[in-house]
């Protein structure tokens, strides 16, 4: 494969990574707004379960000190493209600018844990509608 293909795949990985982060953050914002505005779609079970699982995965990675697999994949693809991880394409540069910050590990663990707790609390206080067998109506026999 050519270096430009690996570079493109690395950029695509960064975009996927940014989309994941956007799903977690924007998803929570929309859930809270939906709770206040009584938007029924914000109680969709699949959406809410995937949202909770996504932040749960991030928190678990932080607690265990695991590097995100998307970061590892991107760096590997950049290496195969012959690029340094800091000498990347335009898309890669700007996505990194918005995704990665320099701070002690405990700061990120705290932020992820607090955000994860907010998502869990929202899940419990504004629960999703179960997709099966949760009808409140009972048949009269």
Automatic annotation (TrEMBL):
Keywords: Membrane, Transmembrane, Transmembrane helix. The keyword Transmembrane helix applies. It comes from the Bacteria. The chain crosses the membrane at residues 12-33, 45-66, 106-126. Pfam families: DUF2784. InterPro entries: DUF2784. The keyword Transmembrane helix applies. This is DUF2784 domain-containing protein.
């Amino acid at each position: 494969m050519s270096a430009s293909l690996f570079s493109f795949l690395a950029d695509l990985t960064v975009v996927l990574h940014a989309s994941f982060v956007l799903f977690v953050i924007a998803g929570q914002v929309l859930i809270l707004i939906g709770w206040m505005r009584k938007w029924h779609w914000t109680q969709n079970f699949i959406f809410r379960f995937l949202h909770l699982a996504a932040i749960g995965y991030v928190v678990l990675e932080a607690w265990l000190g695991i590097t995100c697999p998307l970061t590892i994949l991107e760096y590997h693809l950049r290496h195969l493209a012959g690029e340094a991880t800091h000498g990347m394409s335009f898309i890669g540069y700007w996505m990194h600018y918005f995704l990665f910050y320099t701070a002690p590990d405990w700061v990120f663990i705290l932020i992820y844990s607090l955000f994860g707790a907010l998502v869990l609390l929202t899940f419990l206080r504004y629960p999703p509608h179960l997709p099966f067998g949760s009808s409140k109506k009972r048949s009269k026999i």
